[in-house]
Amino acid sequence: MKFVFLILFPVIAFAGLPTKEEQFKISLATVIENATMSDVRPGMVVASPSKSNPDYYFDWVRDTSLTMRAMVDYYELKHDSRTKRMIFTWIDSEIYRQNLPTMTGLGEPKFNVNGSGFSGPWGRPQNDGAALRALAMIKFARILLKEGQQDFVIKKLYNSMMPASAAIKKDLEYVGHNWREHSFDLWEEEKGMHFYTLLAQFTALQEGAILAREMGDGGAADFYQEQRNQIGNKLKEFVDPRVGIVVTKEKSARLDYKNSGLDVAPLLALLHTSPYQKLFPFRSAPVLKYVQTLIDSFNDHYAVNKTYPDLGVAIGRYIEDKYDGYQTSSAGNPWFLSTLALGEYYCLLRNETKNRKLTDLVEKQFNRVLFHSDRQGHLSEQFNQTSGTMQGARDLTWSHNAFMTAMMRCGLI
Ligand code: NOJ
Ligand code: NOJ
């Protein structure tokens, strides 16, 4: 009986799974839906349509920046006017909120859907947001410059005026002057210096310096470049003999249960700053050591990895995680965006090394994700580490934009 099951397993398990290409289309449609909700200020993106248990009906600067980076990448491929309009609307909404009086200014992590700053208790500031937004906008500015739309770029995205009013310059000034401050990590839990935040800041300033110089703002370019170099020195402190790259240092607010230093955040940082940053190449010793440690630890940690060993490795945020998508007194689970991150990493590594063997590993990561989806195109935040069924915020925008990004970077779109 067992023997028959093993032979039939692949057939049964994959019956009715959407193809990657089908999922891409649904993910794109879902991102657009979450970015154009009728009761939300135009240009803002809800993290999920879920309004309770959990309430993710807010716009997080991080999630939105990553989403719009995916849309800029998509526009670069398709040059379609719908996507372009969406990006323009987003830029206007970012300029609006950059100028709002909020509790921590450009460090504010999340906003109400009417556009006002969220002023309840929260882990703030979160200083990755401004850097990620700058990176998405710099990429779009370059596309516009190529298209001959210099006037728009000067008016809204980059000009040398101080105090800064153009969107990219405002973010770069914030990043350049505040990167030394402790802030909350991307998981909104620990305060300190984070590899993720610093690498985003490093890359935003590096690319910002290039843009500033192009736009005739040489003094600013020098300043951004100098801060970038200093962040680079700081980042070297995160190389760690045990886990390769350690997630957070100098903690000033901490979780008493998070101690290993191993987290998927550095992997996300490498992806979110690719192809620009070269300080931590994919094939460098600390990165290889880190990714292997991550894979081995999660592979071992989640039952679902052993139940379905033919699929790629299900990855979560960090091993000690207690957030189950609803509350933080439970056990963490694999996340779609983390599991996709490993697939995207294999693709980027394959592009560099031309190692065709990696293609198999890429397929397996996509299969893992599709397998734990509801097979109708929905992707929530997490899937249960034992049963494998979805949980947490439904149709998390970040899960869908991670799917889109992985597909585009793997050359599948
Ligand atoms: C919601 C946060 O966004 C999540 O990252 C965190 O783990 C929980 N709250 C608990 O702090
Ligand atoms: C919780 C995650 O930890 C955080 O990174 C994210 O920004 C919010 N949820 C919204 O998706």
Number of strands: 9
Q: Number of helical runs? A: 15
Domains (count):
1
* Termini gap: 41 Å
Strand order of the largest sheet: 3-4-7
CATH top level is Mainly Alpha
State mean pLDDT (0 to 100 scale): 96
Name the bound molecules.
1-deoxynojirimycin
Please compute the radius of gyration using only Cα atoms. Answer: 21 Å
> SSE order, as H and E?
HHEHHEHHHEEHHEEEHHHHHEEH
CATH topology: Glycosyltransferase
Principal-axes shape call: globular
Proportion of helical residues:
40-55%
Low-confidence stretches: none
Largest sheet, if any? 3 strands, antiparallel
Strand share of the residues?
5-15%
The helix/strand class is mainly alpha
CATH 2nd-level architecture: Alpha/alpha barrel
Question: Could you give the topology of this structure?
Answer:
Blueprint (H helix, E strand, L loop, with lengths): L1 H13 L5 H15 L24 E2 H18 L2 H18 L11 E2 L17 H18 L3 H8 L9 H12 L4 E2 L6 E4 H20 L3 H19 L2 E2 L3 E2 L2 E6 L11 H8 L12 H17 L1 H5 L28 H18 L4 H15 L9 E2 L6 E2 L5 H13 L4
Antiparallel strand pairs: 1-2, 3-4, 4-7, 5-6, 8-9
The site of one 1-deoxynojirimycin has 5 residues, from loops.
Give your account of this protein's structure.
The chain is built from 15 helices and nine strands. By secondary structure, the protein is mainly alpha-helical. The chain has one domain (20-113, 120-404): Glycosyltransferase (Alpha/alpha barrel). The chain has a three-stranded antiparallel beta sheet with strand order 3-4-7. The protein has a two-stranded antiparallel sheet with strand order 1-2. A hairpin with a 3-residue loop joins strand 5 (239-240) and strand 6 (244-245). Helix 8 (195-214) packs antiparallel against helix 9 (218-236) and helix 13 runs parallel beside helix 15. The longest helix is centred in the middle third of the chain and has 20 residues, at 195-214. The radius of gyration is 21 Å and the shape is globular. The structure holds 1-deoxynojirimycin (2 copies).
